[in-house]
Amino acid sequence: MWNEHDQTRWDELSRKRDVGTLTGTEQSEYDGLAARLAAEEWEQLSPALRVLDEEIESFKQARRTAEQERSRWESLLSERRAENERWRERVRTLEREYARLRSPQERRTGEVALAEAESAV
């Protein structure tokens, strides 16, 4: 386990390294301390990293599920829009047919009623 002595020695070797005065033996010692420090950091961090990896995977799955749900809703919306358009067209067809089938008398009566309503205003 990394301790005060290791940290002190690391600091000493780092200073020498920074100014370029490390001997070959000291460079080996520095490299060994660096490897030990990296291994201990990994040992300390690996459980948290595993948890993060699991959370990332969970978020990815949630995103995939949400995208599938969005796609399903978009498809349903598209179907409903198409159905609404079919019904609108059907209503327009029925209105045209109704207008065509009305008798001339009904048309005249409707026109008179409209004219009377407009003149009353």
Q: Strand percentage, roughly?
A: under 5%
Mean pLDDT: 91
Radius of gyration: 41 Å
| Contiguous helical run count | 3
The secondary-structure element order is HHH
> What does the main sheet amount to?
none
**Intertermini distance:** 97 Å
Low-confidence stretches: none
How many strands in all? 0
Oligomeric category: single chain
Q: Would you write up a description of this structure?
A:
It is a single chain. The mean pLDDT is 91. The protein is rod-shaped and about 115 Å long. The chain has one domain (4-120). It has helices at residues 4-19, 24-101, 104-120. α1 (4-19) crosses α2 (24-101). The chain has 121 residues and is mainly α. It has 3 helices and no strands.
Write the layout of secondary structure elements.
Blueprint: H1 4-19, H2 24-101, H3 104-120
Looking at this protein, list some descriptive labels.
mainly alpha, 3 helices, 92% helix, 0% strand
In brief:
With 121 residues, the protein is mostly helical.
